[in-house]
Design a protein that fits this description.
about 425 residues; alpha/beta; Alkaline Phosphatase, subunit A; 9-stranded mixed beta sheet; 3-stranded antiparallel beta sheet; 12 helices; 12 strands; about 35% helix; globular; DUF1501; TAT_signal; signal
Length: about 425
């Protein structure tokens, strides 16, 4: 391919993706309410960097929790900065207070001690396994959301409504691993950011240009220098608290500060356009090795906009929320004991969140193994008692109505029992 052709192809690709995103958000308001009963929706929010699940759903009823976290433990309910009581043993981080009405109305649930059966502590590998839905297998070519999109029948719309082809939405600068596969997905951008990606940030375009300009000529050298310069500028614009390891852990996902706005726009899209069945967003900033904090601090500053955004998403979806399941997942948890720099390190078991009108909420699901010394995984982490695929497969089967023969195609090699989080 000649340089002129490559540039034209890159430009055309960018215009095409922009048009998809703009068309989706501009769906006519007259389509609202045209979705027929039985059309289920799924939204997946991935917290890249491994959020500390023990600071989200806090086992305040165990003394071992306070013994292990001298400066970052959250206080008991009713105390200054204390957790919000859930069931007498677990409490919700106070920075997630906007979600309490959903818990109290039975539309928010958690699955504690959930995670991957693979023991890796690598962000890259663990995220890959969770997005492919095949832990321990690196050769899986596609992502489980793309397979689900192919297994789900198209939505049924009212007579005269637009049938549409945009059934999957990815919110973010690049298409994530979870969407890899043959089924088409629309990619729409996050809110305006100073480091807005260009066409050269798209992996397929970047690889082509890197190959084209790999020589020693002046043009090639100028290209490589400009790319390096841009990377350095972007890194300099990141918040001071984000180090290089966090950048890798985030996988390009933005911090959650703008999530409430993104959630509001996504809810508007899904409420107005009955064709959109599945959506995905990723948020970074959860790799809290240093100065994690308790009720205040780095993690608290991340959880606040996350809670606000999820509450906004539920509210803005309106009646559509009754047929929507929202899952919040992260690649693994963090160590039970805090480290010497006031943070937590890469762990194992974590918590999965589930929100929706048909979620069996007001309950912490899963078997809790405890966090006393004798119960810890490898002597340091919360053990995994619920495979994350049990949760995902359970939502697909019970909340989305996916039949067993198609469930096996979405999660190949998984033979566990799906966890039923549905009210039905």
């Amino acid at each position: 391919m000649q340089r002129r052709q490559l540039l034209q192809a890159a430009s055309a690709a960018g215009l095409a993706w922009t048009a998809v995103g703009r068309t989706a958000f501009a769906a006519p308001a007259t389509q609202a309410g045209q979705q027929l009963p039985g059309n289920k929706r799924l939204i997946v929010v991935f917290l890249r960097g491994a959020v500390d699940g023990l600071s989200v759903v806090v086992p305040y009823g165990e003394g071992a929790y306070y013994d292990a976290r001298s400066s970052i433990a959250l206080a008991h309910p009713g105390q200054d900065g204390g957790v919000l009581d859930l069931d007498g043993h677990f409490g919700l981080n106070p920075n997630l207070a906007p979600l309490m009405p959903l818990w109290q109305s039975g539309k928010l649930a958690f699955v504690q001690a959930s995670g991957s059966p693979d023991p890796t502590r690598s962000h890259f590998d663990a995220q890959d396994y969770m997005e492919s839905g095949t832990p321990g297998r690196k050769g899986t070519p596609d992502g489980w959301l793309n397979r689900l999109l192919g297994a789900e029948p198209p939505v049924v719309v009212a007579p005269g409504a637009r049938a549409g082809v945009t059934r999957g939405i990815s919110v973010g600068a690049t298409m994530p691993r979870i969407w890899a596969g043959p089924n088409p997905v629309a990619n729409i951008a996050n809110g305006s950011r100073a480091t807005k990606p260009t066409q050269l940030d798209r992996p397929q375009v970047s690889k082509a240009f890197d190959s084209l300009y790999s020589g020693d000529d002046a043009m090639s050298k100028a290209y490589r220098e400009s790319q390096q310069s841009r990377a350095e500028v972007n890194e300099a614009m990141l918040p001071a608290e984000m180090d290089r390891e966090q950048m890798v852990a985030n996988g390009g996902a933005p911090l959650p500060n703008g999530f409430p706005d993104d959630a509001s726009r996504l809810a508007q899209l899904m409420r107005r356009d009955p064709n959109v069945q599945i959506a995905f967003l990723a948020l970074g900033g959860w790799d809290t090795h240093v100065n994690q904090g308790g009720a205040k601090g780095q993690l608290a500053n991340r959880l606040q906009p996350l809670g606000q955004g999820l509450a906004e998403l539920a509210t803005r979806l309106g009646p559509t929320f009754d047929d929507t399941t929202i899952l919040v997942i992260s690649e693994f948890g963090r160590t039970v004991r805090q480290n010497g720099t006031g943070g937590t390190d890469h762990g194992h078991g974590n918590v999965i969140w589930a929100l929706g009108g048909n979620v069996a909420g007001g309950k912490v699901h899963g078997r809790w193994p405890g966090i006393d010394a004798s119960s810890l995984h490898e002597g340091r982490d919360l053990a995994v008692t619920t495979d994350f695929r049990q949760v995902l497969a359970g939502v697909c089967a019970h909340n989305l109505g996916l039949p067993d023969n198609k469930l096996a195609a979405v999660f190949p090699g998984f033979d566990g029992a799906p966890l039923n989080l549905s009210r039905a």
